[in-house]
Amino acid sequence: MLNMKLYCGSNQLSPQGGLMNTTTSGLSRNYIIYQIFKYTIYGFLTYNMYVFFEGELSSSAQTFRNGINLEDIILAFSASIDSLAWIILLVVFELETAIIDDDTLKGPLFWVLLGVKTFSYVFIIYAAYGYIARTMFISDTSAFHIADACSLIGTSFTYIVTLDDYVPITEAACQVLNNAPLVQINGTEIIGTVDAITDAQRLGWVDIINSNDWLLIVAILEVDVYLQLHDKLTGRVYKISQAIKPLLYLVLFINAVYWGFKGDLVDFWDAVLWLLAFFFIEMNIFQWHEEKEEEKEEAHKLELAEGNAND
User: How many beta carbons lie within 10 A of that of residue 235, not counting itself?
Assistant: First the structure.
C-alpha cells in the first residue's frame, strides 16, 4: 500500500514516501492540495461533533429536567456519541487504506485496530438505537388543549421548533400556537403544533434511515479492506461491492438534500462532509486495488519472460 498512486490525468503521485522520481513540482502541489483538502474535511467533521454536543446539551436541559441518568445519555447525546465514534472509525479506515503498509497491517497492529473499530462500532450501533429511541420519544404524543397558550409564558413549558430544538414560549410564539392544533410529548412539558411535531418525526426517521444505511456501507468496506489485504478483492466480489455502494451513497445524498430542503443546514453540511470523507476512503481502496492488480500483472509478465528465457 505504500506505493499507492493518486492519478492526476497521465501523471502519478505516491501518497507516502514523497513523490515518485517521475513527478514534477506541479504534481507535488497537486498532491499537497489534495491532502490539505482531505484533512480539512476531516477537521470540519471533528468540529461538527462539538456543534452537535452543544445543541444536544441545550435540548437535553428541556427533555431531562430532573437530570440525565446513565441509561438516558445515549438518548440525550446520540448525535455527539455517533459523531465521535464515526471520527475514530474514519481515522482507522484512513490508516488501513492509505498510510500503513500491508505487512504491518497483517501483524499485531491488525488486532489493535480491530479493537479500536469494535469499540467504535459498539457506540455507532448504540447511537443508531438512540435515533430510534428519540424518534419513538417524540412520536409518543397526545392532544394538548389550552384556552390561551400565552398563559404558558414564563412557565417551564417549551415548544418544539424542530427536532432537538425546544425553546421557551414567547409572546410571538404563543400567537402561532394559539392558531394551530397542539400536541404534547407525553411525560414532558414540551408542546408544539401538529405540523412541527410531524416534521420533527420525519427528520427522526431520516436519521434512522441514515444511520442504518451507513452501517451497511461500513460493513461492505470492512469486507473490502479484509479481502484487499489478503489479495482476494477480485472479479465478481469487487464488482458486486462497487455496484451496491453507489446505491447506498445515493440514499445518503437524498437524505442530505432532504435536510437542506427542510432548512436543517447543520445536518446537511455534516452529511455532505461525511460523503466527501468516505469518497476519500473509497479512492484509497480503489488505488490500493489498482496497485495490487498492477503488481500481479507485472509478476505474471515476469513469470512469462522467465519461462521464455528458459525455453
Answer: 8
Is residue 134 a part of any domain in this protein? yes
Domain of residue 165: give its range.
6-310
Give the CA-trace dihedral at 45, 50, 52, 57, to 10 degrees.
Answer: 170
Per-residue pLDDT of the chain (311 residues; tens, 9 = 90+): 444 434 433 334 444 433 344 444 555 788 888 889 999 999 999 998 888 888 777 777 666 766 676 666 766 777 788 888 999 999 999 999 989 988 898 889 989 999 999 999 998 998 888 889 889 999 999 999 999 999 999 999 999 998 888 889 999 999 999 999 999 999 999 999 999 999 999 999 999 999 999 999 999 999 999 999 888 888 788 889 999 999 999 999 999 999 999 887 888 998 999 999 999 999 999 988 888 878 777 776 777 777 666 66
Collapsing DSSP to helix, strand or coil, 190 comes out as strand
Cell 490500493 belongs to 288
Give the residues across from 185 on adjacent strands. 141
Number of structural domains, the chain? 1
Measured CA angle at 262 (ends 260, 264), to 5 deg:
60
Count the helices and strands in the chain (H runs, E runs).
9, 7
* Beta strand segments in the chain, E: 6-8, 11-13, 141-144, 158-162, 165-168, 182-185, 190-193
The answer to whether position 1 is within a domain reads no
Which amino acid type is present at position 116? Answer: V
pTM: 0.79
